[in-house]
Amino acid sequence: MSNFAYMSGTGNDFIVSPYTGPTSEIQIISLVADSDYEVDGVIFVESIDDSTVKMHYFNSDGTAAELCVNGVRCTAKYAYDNELVTAHKMTVVAPVGNLTAVVEDSVVTVNAPLPTYSSESILIDDIDGIKSQVGNPHFLVSVENVETFDLATFYNKVNESEHFSEGVNVEIYEVVSENFVKTRVFERGVGETDACGSGALCLFNYLYSEKIVHNPTTILFPGGELDLEFKDTNLYISGIVTYL
Q1: Same domain, 129 and 105
Q2: Number of domains, the chain
Q3: What's the predicted TM-score (pTM) here?
Q4: Which parts of 50-190 are beta strand (E)?
Q5: Are 212 and 183 in contact (CB under 8 A)?
Q6: For the segment 99-116, what is each residue's pLDDT rounded down to a tens digit?
Q7: What is the CA 29 to chain-centroid distance, rounded?
Q8: Are residues 237 and 137 in the same domain?
């Protein structure tokens, strides 16, 4: 790869490179294995026009994903810094549709798709959770202590259940205040990661819609903070993007 970079979107780490054509699952796995860092995925950025790029995203196991919001934020930062676009506001074409991203120094904000969720909870291993969707599936679970909860064991039980035949991302969360939530996430095809943008969207939309948190709210992952806010009917997510 030429002109590739290691980038982090609030703790989600990626290999990012210009798009040169279709890539096989084996090639992705090889890139991840040879990486200088433990990465959550690989992103190829394709230039469409002066204000539009397309994100080709793959999980670290070589599988494609419907949405990776922190990947979108890294894509936008990479495109702007490498002059694939001419302005700091751009369109990023993703599998879920066209998303608007704005790059302001190290902070990247995305006008995100609105998640859906089921108001009926699902019981797994005597623990209630909420099913949510934002292109990719999520299972949201309230716990007493985010740090000490055995997320890996619980994820295996969720993944083996009849409710998620195609797999699911599991977010455990702890509401600290009306504007602050702590969370950890176990992503399908990756494992436990330091952040998850789509999970943050699902979590905030559910908690805000159910009047558990206020607008805006900060969600703290092990990798850092993501800020979520509704402006009118539009949902925005923002956070830091850095180079490793």
Answers
A1: no
A2: 2
A3: 0.93
A4: 52-59, 89-94, 97-104, 107-112, 116-117, 122-124, 127-133, 137-142, 169-177, 180-187
A5: no
A6: 999 999 999 999 999 999
A7: 20
A8: yes
